[in-house]
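User: Show me a protein chain along with its predicted structure.
Assistant: Here is one chain, sequence first, then structure tokens.
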Amino acid sequence: MLFILLTILTQIGGIIYLISIVLIRKKSDRKRVKRLGTFIGLYLITTFFIVPYLAPIFGRVKIEDSDTLRAHSFFYKLANRNYVRKELNQSIKRISSNFENDFQGMKIVYLDANFPFIDGFPLLPHLSHNDGKKIDITLIYEEANLQLTNRKPSVSGYGIYENPTDKEYNQIDICKKSGNWQYDFPKYLTFGKINSDIRFSKKGTGKLVGLILADKNIGKLFIEPHLKSRLGLKNEKIRYHGCKAVRHDDHIHFQLR
């Protein structure tokens, strides 16, 4: 079970766990403590010093934090979920730089991207983050004084929705009523609500989506239909992800052509 869980979460954790079992003999004193220590040490060394140099063999590179780009949580880096193809990495850097030019001090904050190895290897719970071509980023939020902020409303970055108003098209209800229970599932993956004083920024999110759509490398963008309407977006790159996926009014998904 540990092997499966670690593999699902990090791709490489299960293998490193098995290696730690082999290295520490069954009859060794305090074997559990030694195995845990060995696993942690090997995992950290592999994740931060070996994987970044092996990933390019599989056509992927590590997303590096910068003055205009950062991971929402250290978890995404620790779990090796911060790898993309070179072309997408270039686009992310370009988009984040342009966004900061328009809104000084603002950063693109990314969530799940892809694992470093093997096309087709699933990055759960996502359906399609398995080829280095996809990434999720957070929406943009603002303070009460309308000043944009890099703060977000959930610990994980997922699960706090910008729900449709009574006058907006409600795709969420349609999907749930048709039996797609998982459509609303990320609300259980927030790992805690924070920063209750901030709110969705129509201005900031609209500008960010516009920059993404304008990038030549980007082929698709997923966002919930009511937000597409609210932001006045009209572009052939904007697609509806379907009821079999999960709702996209807590994050933005975009990908290479």
